[in-house]
Design brief:
- The protein is of the alpha/beta class.
- Helix content is 46%, strand content 24%.
- The chain has a single domain, classed as 3-Layer(aba) Sandwich (Rossmann fold), CATH 3.40.50.2300.
- A hairpin with a 2-residue loop joins strand 4 and strand 5.
Amino acid sequence: MRILYIEDDPISIRVMQRITNYLADELLIASTVADGIIMAMNKPDLVLLDLNLPDGKGLDVARRIRELGYMFPVVALTAGNIGSDYQRCLDAGCNDYVVKPVNFPQMCAYLNKWFGR
């Protein structure tokens, strides 16, 4: 599966690279809102989206993806409070929300759930 990970933190990117290598998934990386929107046009199977990016809010990516008519799953990943952010994520077009940090086994299980494995 092709996963687009929109994240600017190098440590988080390295962790996700390890996870996707282990699961034999392809990982595409964007580190800004602008790059994320452009790369989403390649129609990945799943988008993992950090909410705080250097050039704007991750939810802007989710909104734009939906405005363009893309229906692939978008999952927000953030260290924020799930209570206050969850509804905002859904309203912006996200399908789900994951609170960071997530460990290796948790994220493997989560990705396997999304991909039905």
